[in-house]
Design brief:
The chain is of the alpha/beta class and about 270 residues long. The chain folds into 2 domains: about 90 residues, Ubiquitin-like (UB roll) (Roll); about 130 residues, 3-Layer(aba) Sandwich (Cytidine Deaminase, domain 2), CATH 3.40.140. The chain has 7 helices and 14 strands. The chain has a 6-stranded mixed β-sheet with strand order 9-8-10-11-12-13, with helices on both faces. About 40% of the residues are buried.
C-alpha cells in the first residue's frame, strides 16, 4: 500500500478514518485541518517559511507584506505567483526595486515563524514597531458588537469541520460580516484578512473579531488598516493593552455569551 504524501498543498482539510475507542475496533470519520509549509519569496530571494493553511494565499502574501513593512501599498507589488511543490508551496512576489533594496538592507534572518511572532528578529529595536496613530473619531455600538459575535462563529466553515483553526472577521458598523478568513495560525488568518481588505477604501467604522487571544502583534497588524476596534474571543496580553491604549484603539476581550470586557478606550463604545 502506497503511503500518502506527507505534505498536502491542495486542500485546507482532509477526511480520515480513526479508531473511535482504544478498546474497540469501531472506526469513524473525522476531518482534520491541513498545515503546509509556505515560503514567501521576494524577487527570487526567499524571505520566510511559515506553516499555514493552503488557501487564500495571495491574500496572505499581500497582508504579510504590508504588516511586515516590506511594502507600503499594493502598488509596490507587480505580480504574485503561487507554485505548489512536493514539499510545500512557494509564493513568488515581484516587488518594486526600491522596496526590495530596502528589504535586503533590513532583512531579518527568518527560517520560520511560531506563535511568538518574533522568531528571527535580529535586535530588540525590531520587536516593537509602534504604528502611526492616525486620529479617527469613531464610535462603535455595543449591540453591533454582540450581533457580530453571533455571526462570527457560524461562518467559520473550516473550524466547524476540524475544530483546529483560527479565524478573523471584518465587520461594518452595523455588525454585518464583510469578510472572514481562516487559518491554522492566528497571525496568518489576520494577514489573510488584511490582504483581502487592502483595496477597500473606507474602513474607519469597521472592526475585527479574532477567535484567538489579542496579542500585541494583532494590535500592531490592525493598525495598518487604521481600524480602531479589535474584539478577541480570548484575553488580551498586557503589552497589547498598552499598545492599543497608545494608538487609541479600543481593545475588547473575553467576548462571548453576550458579554465582553473592554480594556482600552471604552468611551468609543456606546450602548
Amino acid at each position: 500500500m502506497t503511503k500518502e504524501k506527507l505534505i498536502q498543498t491542495s486542500h485546507s482539510c482532509k477526511e480520515v478514518s480513526i479508531q473511535k475507542n482504544i478498546n474497540s475496533e469501531e472506526t469513524t470519520k473525522e476531518v482534520l485541518a491541513e498545515e503546509t509549509p509556505i515560503a514567501i519569496i521576494y524577487n527570487g530571494v526567499s524571505h520566510v517559511v511559515m506553516m499555514a493553511s493552503p488557501c487564500d494565499l495571495e491574500d496572505f502574501a499581500r497582508g504579510f507584506s504590508i504588516t511586515e513593512g516590506v511594502i507600503t501599498s499594493l502598488s509596490d507589488i507587480y505580480s504574485i505567483e503561487v507554485l505548489k511543490k512536493d514539499n510545500g508551496i512557494e509564493i513568488n512576489l515581484e516587488i518594486s526595486t526600491e522596496k526590495f533594496i530596502r528589504l535586503k538592507e533590513i532583512r531579518r534572518n527568518l527560517t520560520g515563524r511560531t506563535g511568538c511572532g518574533l522568531c528571527g528578529a535580529e535586535s530588540l529595536d525590531q520587536v516593537l514597531k509602534i504604528p502611526e496613530n492616525k486620529k479617527i473619531a469613531t464610535k462603535f455600538s455595543s449591540k453591533s458588537i454582540l450581533r457580530a459575535l453571533k455571526k462570527f462563529s457560524s461562518q467559520q466553515e473550516i473550524q466547524k469541520k476540524t475544530g483546529a483553526t483560527h479565524a478573523c472577521g471584518l465587520f461594518n458598523s452595523k455588525g454585518d460580516l464583510i469578510l472572514l478568513k481562516e487559518d491554522v495560525g492566528r497571525h496568518n488568518a489576520l494577514d489573510k484578512l488584511i490582504g483581502a481588505s487592502l483595496d477597500t477604501t473606507i474602513l474607519n467604522d469597521f472592526f475585527v473579531i479574532t477567535s484567538s487571544r489579542a496579542s500585541y502583534e494583532m494590535v500592531q497588524k490592525l493598525a495598518y488598516l487604521n481600524l480602531k476596534l479589535l474584539v478577541a474571543i480570548s484575553a488580551p496580553t498586557a503589552l497589547a493593552t498598552r499598545l492599543a491604549d497608545q494608538i487609541e484603539m479600543t481593545l475588547v476581550g473575553f467576548a462571548r455569551n453576550n458579554r465582553y470586557n473592554c480594556y482600552t478606550h471604552s468611551a468609543q463604545i456606546i450602548g
